[in-house]
Amino acid sequence: MTDTSRTDTDTVQIYTDGACKGNPGPGGWGALLQAGEHERELFGGEPLTTNNRMELIAVIRALQALKRPSRVVIHTDSQYVQKGISAWIHGWKARGWMTSDRKPVKNADLWRELDALVGAHRIDWRWVRGHAGHPGNERADALANRGVGLRPD
């Protein structure tokens, strides 16, 4: 299968992943940004975190790296991120950042940050199966593992 979106210079393809050695434990995040023939790799980490936090930070850092409002396709292997931003967030916001069973939303600080960033872009959220040989996802996974345990900037 050919990925024809790779040659679309008007759309930024973003592949993100998070990694954690122990949950919680040292973690890392990675993002691969592609637009036409241009690529940018980003990664970082934290000494004590969770996998879900790293998944969210990967997307946040990737969107922060964009210099202008863009058409974006975000590929994530995290259903937590994909479903959270596409469906669950609306209820969380309506309930004052509480879940349907009236508990505080985990990682609400990051969800708020992500919510503020997505408004500047036209984003298509795509879930991909992790560790299934998808080249962009495999590269994001390698970047996330490079970041495991690094101190945030």
What does this structure look like?
It is a single chain. This protein has 153 residues and is of the alpha/beta class. It has a domain at 4-79 and 118-147: 2-Layer Sandwich (Nucleotidyltransferase, domain 5). Helices cover 35% and strands 29% of the residues. It contains 4 helices and 5 strands. A 5-stranded mixed β-sheet has the order 3-2-1-4-5. Strand 2 (25-35) and strand 3 form a beta hairpin. Helix 1 (51-64) packs parallel to helix 3 (108-118). The termini are far apart.
What can be said about this structure in brief?
This protein has 153 residues and is of the alpha/beta class. It is 35% helix and 29% strand.
Question: Layout of SSEs?
Answer:
Blueprint: E1 11-20, E2 25-35, E3 38-49, H1 51-64, E4 71-76, H2 79-94, H3 108-118, E5 122-127, H4 135-147
Parallel strand pairs: 1-4, 4-5
Antiparallel strand pairs: 1-2, 2-3
Number of strands: 5
The backbone outline, from C-alpha atoms, is globular
Name of the CATH superfamily of the domain at 4-79 and 118-147:
Ribonuclease H-like superfamily/Ribonuclease H
* Amino-to-carboxy terminus distance: 38 Å
Q: How would a crystallographer describe the biggest sheet? A: 5 strands, mixed
Would you tell me the structural class of the helices and strands? alpha/beta
The radius of gyration is 15 Å
Count every helix, treating DSSP H or I runs of 4 or more residues as helices: 4
CATH architecture of the domain at 4-79 and 118-147: 2-Layer Sandwich
The percent of residues in helical segments reads: 25-40%
